[in-house]
Amino acid sequence: xxxxxxxxxxxxxxxxxxxxxxxxxxxxxxxxxxxxxxxxxxxxxxxxxxxxxxxxxxxxxxxxxxxxxxxxxxxxxxxxxxxxxxxxxxxxxxxxxxxxxxxxxxxxxxxxxxxxxxxxxxxxxxxxxxxxxxxxxxxxxxxxxxxxxxxxxxxxxxxxxxxxxxxxxxxxxxxxxxxxxxxxxxxxxxxxxxxxx
Length: 197
Prior knowledge:
By secondary structure, the chain is mostly helical. It has helices at residues 10-42, 84-87, 92-97, 106-111, 127-136, 159-172, 175-190; strands at residues 48-54, 60-66, 115-117, 144-146.
């Protein structure tokens, strides 16, 4: 199978994303509705949090997530927050451990801002992560709902380790690697592997 990084396969990956998103949308709708209701009933504020993220070629886009933290939480990476557990809403920890908070990102796949598999999009102010990804060429990839780094540590690895894994994905993309990442993502979600907050 040809590598996905080659121009001729960019469209193939896009078609794969659209077909998979269309197939998953009906199954995710009920879970999303229940999770959204839980967010609304347990904390004041909007159900969705529109996070400013760095997309392909460093273009900023709005990535939707179910809100898992109180509305006055600063816009920064969770691991940089002081006492992040205290920032979580009553259902926030559950939504994060089950990755239900990520389900609205199907919308970003439909719009083309994201792919199912790719490096997780950095926050707009994660300058160190963005700069290191730029050095390694990783910013040329569309960000993903899941990725090689997510199944190899997620919240447990450092930024240089994360970028090294992102670079591995950049150099070794294929439909088979994407399918492996998606399969392992399901396993990791079931066991909440690599989730700290």
